Amino acid sequence: MIKFTLILLSFCIIAFGETEFAEPKPSFDNPRKIVFGISDGTPHSLDHLLSVANNVLKFYGPENVMMKIVAYSQGMKLLNKNNPVTAVRVDALIQYEVEFVACGNTMRTLKIKEEDLVEGSVIVTAGVVELIESIKNDWTYINP
Questions:
Q1: How far apart are the first and last CA of the chain?
Q2: Which residues touch 125 (CB under 8 Å, ≥6 apart)?
Q3: Average pLDDT, the chain
Q4: What is the 3-class SS of 34-59, one letter each residue?
Q5: Taking 90 as the threshold, does the pLDDT of residue 39 lie above it?
Q6: Contact call for residues 141 and 131 (beta carbons, < 8 A)
Q7: What is the pTM of this model?
Q8: Domains and CATH numbers, the chain
């Protein structure tokens, strides 16, 4: 039985090997720059985004990643400080220096006030423009 387990473990290691990092490898001096966009406000979408962001931080280590999450349209629900499920998770990611960006245009349209946002949120004029400019500045865009 032990022999079978070792063979199975060896197979898994070979079949599902470690991720090879692209050069230059992520480091404190050369962090991966990742930007997420969220425009869907469904509980599943919000939960999924926060889980993916957390998984990326765990994999690379927070010291090797610069991350920002841009919320616009219904994705602004992510930054609602009165949503206990997301607010606690957003606050935890802020502690790891993840930047949360709110779309000012959406805020005006949906009549969201700055005081309604999780503390530490950054407001920009247009969330989509923030995504475009981030991509142009070599950030990797992820839409989970």
A1: 40
A2: 104, 105
A3: 89
A4: EEEEECCCCHHHHHHHHHHHHHHHHH
A5: yes
A6: yes
A7: 0.85
A8: 29-142 (3.40.1260.10)
